[in-house]
Each structure stands twice: as structure tokens, then as C-alpha cells.
Amino acid sequence: MFSTVGTPDYIAPEVFNQQGYGQSCDWWSLGVIMYECLVGYPPFYADDPLTTCRNIVNWENHLVFPPEANLSAAAEAMMKKLMTNASHRAGYNEIRTHAFFSGIDWKNQRKAKGPIIPSAKWEDNFDHIEAEQDYSATSNTVKKYKDKAVQGYTFHKPTKKAPKPNAFDMFAQQGDDDDDD
Fold it and tell me: 18-22, 59-63, 83-87: which range is least confident on average?
């Protein structure tokens, strides 16, 4: 495959390199999610998406485990097995047998009771939900900011026709600019 979908923070480097990819890119994403859950932020985060993409492609120089996160050796090792080159990345069987998951009864996992059992009954679940508010284009927020660009990943329709930018071309151009320094 050669298409990209998703938030850049979780996309595997082989996807950005447009060399094709397989199911192992999902294990990379699992490693990024695990890192974010245990550390508190994604491992390749940057202030702009293009720099995030560059950090992922150059993951060997940007994957850092902060000591203040107090990660166990097993957690760090598991993430390193997930966030690595696709040819060396852990797969399902290696993940199941990894020390991080020791003590998990994989065969009976579906039969096990969850650690938190909600006490709410289905019939009562929606009794206290407030009526939906109108967030249409008539809201004061939209009126106030209607002509201003929205930062982040939100789509903003341009008012003039311009050529559609290609993220990969922009990424390559950015890398070419850095070679001039």
C-alpha cells in the first residue's frame, strides 16, 4: 500500500517513505500509543505536523525515553520492539510472549471480568444528558473566527483556488532546504 490516513504522530516511518507497507505499521502505532499512555505525550511530537513527520522518519535520533517517566525495563523494551524498523518489529506472537505482558492469561482473556464493572443500567444511562446545542455557522464563535485560519489538523477551505499541496512533496522540499545549511 502507498496511501496515508491518520494523525501524523502515529504513522510508521515506512508510510512516509512511500516504499509500501504492511500490517507491521499497526504495531508501530501501538508502540506510539503505549508510549503516550505511559509517558504522557507522543514520542515524536513537534509544534507542527511537518516536523513531527520528520522526527518519525528519523526515529533513531528522536526516540527518547525520559527518566522521569519511571518506565520499567520491560515497558521500554516492548516499545523499542514496536517502534523500530519494519523488518525487526515485533508481531503478534512476540508481543504476547514479551515480559511486559507476563501474567496475562491470553487463552482466557475473553472470559475474565474487567477491573471496573460499570453499575449503570442501560435504560438509565441517558436520562441526564442535556439537550444538544446548536454549533452551526450562526454561533458566535464561528462568526468571530470565520476568516481566520485554524491551527492544527482542522480543515480550512481556502477562499481562492490554489494548487492542492502534496504533503510528501512539501516534506521532500523541506529536507532539500536543510541540505543547503
Answer: 18-22
